[in-house]
Write a structure and sequence with these properties.
alpha/beta, Amino acid/polyamine transporter I, 2 domains, 8-stranded mixed β-sheet, 4-stranded antiparallel β-sheet, 53% helix, elongated, potassium, potassium transport
Length: 775
């Protein structure tokens, strides 16, 4: 499946209002499902136990005022007008901010970064700053680049936000579905509904996670209509309640009612803020899902559809409750009590569908952020299934899916009420927003190069609001808020263990790489028999010869005719253009037939399937041989150790270079009608392979010979030489390091996936060699 071309060659037309409005409509189902269902549980969570609805209506007016200003200041002002502008080449989310900072400060969680990566099209760096700001910016950048402690702190902050998003992926489906099903409580006695609600909610959750492997593209067309119908429904009910019960409810929007609320309720009112903040749950999705839409479409959808609908819904509920003070118990203060009895069942059905859509969005977002973490070296490799050949963002991770389902069911069965679920979800939501605020303040200074006072105003204004809510949520730690803390702690330990172990292993490889003189001393045959075929040796190094190669040479009786040191690395940009995919170079003289190939991917890139990747790999080496010293304008990077690398694109992007044909003679992405010259391999029974090359410039005789040998090796087959690296802590290491390396990292390594391109290679074509590293 060729997704690369679709990603880069079909950009959204900014001047097309039809396209923008279509995207705005589609974003309702993907981005705003979670936020739109918040009216189901906000008032119920706010009035759980801390405050009570009195005849004076000061409590309900105060809650409405808090909801209105929280929705206005956080999603509308902070996200729509400020945070959405901090996109990373069109991508958003916590890791997008971290990636943006890494590039501008030259700090990265990826150890094998190169100067050549900074030449990528999407690797944007700002130009020189003005004199009045450059001193502060340069000092801050220098401090971050030199201080390892601050670099680790920045990474931990980003990981904490990421872990809370994963925790939200557990809590949001639980509270959304449970709150939607709670409409049954008004149709039966309290004794009976508790025995019905839990099984129904669990059944819906199991169904929701069971269908994830089909992908959202099969039912995605229903998401936007469902959320739009839900928003239309709650806004219509809100208008009805306002007109019928309290037309003057708009007066409660005044900030004065927040003051009266806190003055009367004091500490209990402050603690109830943990329930009120649930009105902004899902706001982070506006930024996290930015890559699937555009800034303008997301802004239009929220400002003109979602925001007014939610305000009307909350005002309608408050208008109804302001005239109904006889409440049997707190569960009767929920959303459904304000719905007219005649339409309660249809509203219940739409609410359940909307809750499922909102849950689907956060689950998909969790898959996406796990993929980003894995690409940036902060999460063990997991199986990633692309459920759509058209949309690159739709993925499915089986291990994460079933883990989320088990945890989600455990939360639902363990709590059985929206009070504890709301406390847990509230802490997760506000922590993610605090992390975004902190990272955003650094982006304002380092990336946008604005005055430091502007960044301080940003973090003080929005940070103070979020700290207020965070403190209220933290007070509910023993009443459910411990769940996201526990989940985040577990995921944070996993991420940091993997990152630490991976970094130590790379440092060992870097310090113990073999010199080029050792390779030259072996001679063209490497001191052993060279047999036909291509041998792929995976390495994390981008220069030099890995230490495990000497282990191969001393333990193997023969080696392949063509050897390729393959490094598949991620770079801190969302996407790498296909024409900049590979860096190809030569190790040693030509007669050695040893190449280095570095395949570069962004943290949101789709890795092509194994057959296509194999063709691209061989094609990139062939193009390197053809263009070597024959095209003076070819982009070349000097990596040291006598290696010079050439930037080569994929076959689908290389319109003027070499083409690869197999078996039936159909070329991969044959170029137009231009005259081509063929170099064919001898007729044998194996798979026919030929390269099609342009007439001009003429290929030299030695290059033709080298291409001939590469084709013969390709026909003989490709083998993956896999090195099992067992990392152990050195003797004399601290007991913490021994536990982390010998047990923690080793457990994660043994249970993680191998390189994706190696999984499809037949076992007979795989050669495994083990080696113990002491770090």
């Amino acid at each position: 499946m060729d997704l690369e071309g679709r990603i880069h060659h079909n950009p959204i037309k900014r001047d097309s209002w039809k396209t923008v409005l279509t995207l705005a409509y589609q974003s309702l189902g993907v981005v705003y499902g979670d936020l739109s269902t918040s009216p189901l549980y906000v008032y119920k969570s706010a009035f759980a136990e801390d405050i009570h609805h009195s005849e004076t209506n000061e409590e309900i007016y105060g809650v409405l005022s808090f909801v209105f200003w929280t929705l206005t200041l956080i999603p509308l002002v902070k996200y729509v007008f400020i945070v959405l502008r901090a996109d990373d080449n069109g991508e958003g989310g916590t890791f997008a901010l971290y990636s943006l900072l890494c590039r501008h400060v030259r700090v990265s969680s990826i150890p094998n970064c190169q100067l050549a990566d900074e030449e990528l099209t999407e690797y944007k760096n700002d130009g020189p700053v003005s004199n009045d700001k450059s001193v502060i910016v340069s000092r801050l950048k220098s401090t971050l680049e030199k201080c390892r402690l601050l670099q680790k702190l920045l990474l931990v902050v980003a990981l904490v936000g990421t872990c809370m998003v994963i925790g939200d992926g557990v809590l949001t489906p639980a509270i959304s579905v449970f709150s939607a099903v709670s409409g049954l409580e008004l149709s039966m006695s309290r004794e009976h509904h508790q025995y019905v609600m839990l099984p129904v909610a669990c059944a819906i959750l199991v169904f929701l996670f069971a269908i994830q492997h089909f992908g959202t593209h099969r039912v995605g067309f229903l998401f936007a209509p469902v959320v739009f119908a839900w928003l239309l429904c709650i806004s219509a009910i809100g208008i009805y309640n306002i007109v019928r019960w309290n037309p003057h409810i708009y007066q409660a929007l005044s900030p004065y009612y927040m003051y009266k609320f806190l003055k009367k309720t004091q500490r209990k009112g402050w603690m109830s803020l943990g329930g009120i903040l649930l009105c902004i749950t899902g706001s982070e999705a506006m930024f996290a899902d930015l890559g699937h839409f555009s800034q303008l479409s997301i802004k239009i959808a929220f400002t003109f559809v979602v925001y007014p609908s939610l305000i009307l819904a909350y005002m309608g509920q408050a208008a109804y409750l302001s005239k109904h003070h006889v409440i049997e118990s707190y569960y009767r203060i929920g959303f459904y009590v304000s719905v007219p009895a005649q339409i309660r069942w249809p509203v219940l059905a739409i609410a359940i569908l909307a809750a499922v859509v909102g849950s689907q969005s956060i689950i998909t977002g969790t898959f996406s952020i796990i993929k980003q973490c894995s690409a940036l070296g902060c999460f063990p490799r997991v199986k990633i299934v692309h459920t759509s050949s058209e949309k690159h963002g739709q993925i499915y991770i089986p291990e994460i899916n079933w883990t989320l389902m088990v945890l989600c069911l455990a939360v639902t069965i363990g709590f059985r009420n929206t009070k504890h679920m709301g406390n847990a979800a509230g802490l997760a939501v506000i922590t993610v927003m605090l992390v975004t605020t902190c990272l955003m303040s650094l982006v304002i200074i380092l990336c946008w190069q604005k005055n430091i006072l502007l960044a301080m105003c940003f973090i003080l204004f929005f940070g103070s609001i979020e700290v207020l809510y965070f403190s209220a949520s933290l007070m509910k730690f023993l009443e459910g808020a411990w769940v996201p803390v526990a989940l985040s702690f577990i995921f944070l330990i996993i991420m940091y263990l993997w990152h630490y172990g991976t970094l130590k292993k790379y440092e060992f490889d870097l310090q113990n790489k073999v010199s080029i003189n050792w390779l030259l001393g072996l001679g063209p045959n490497l001191g052993i028999v060279r047999v036909r075929g291509i041998g792929l040796i995976h390495t994390e190094l981008v220069s030099g010869i890995p230490a495990i190669f000497s282990h191969f040479v001393t333990n193997l009786p023969a080696f392949h005719q063509v050897l390729v040191f393959l490094c598949i690395k991620s770079v801190p940009v969302p996407h790498v253009r296909p024409e900049e995919r590979f860096l190809v170079g030569r190790i040693g003289p030509k007669e050695y037939h040893i190449y280095r190939c570095i395949a570069r991917y962004g943290y949101r890139d789709v890795h092509r399937d194994d057959v296509e990747f194999e063709k691209d790999l061989v094609g990139s080496i062939a193009e390197f041989i053809r263009s070597e010293k024959s095209e003076p304008h070819t982009q070349i990077e000097d990596l040291g150790d006598g290696e010079r690398m050439t930037v080569v694109g994929t076959l689908s992007s290389n319109f003027s270079g070499i083409k690869l044909c197999e078996d039936n003679g159909n070329c991969t992405d044959t170029v137009g009608t231009s005259e081509l010259r063929e170099i064919k391999s001898p007729e044998i029974l194996r798979k026919r392979v030929r390269f099609v090359v342009p007439d001009s410039p003429q290929i030299k005789t030695d290059a033709q010979k080298e291409l001939q040998e590469l084709m013969e090796a390709r026909e003989a087959g490709m083998a993956f030489i896999l090195g099992h690296l067992y990392v152990r802590a050195k003797r004399g290491s601290s007991w913490i390091k021994r536990i982390v390396i010998n047990y923690g990292y080793d457990f994660l390594r043994r249970n993680s996936r191998g390189p994706a391109y190696a999984l499809s290679i037949p076992q007979a074509s795989t050669l495994e060699v083990g080696m113990v590293y002491y770090v």
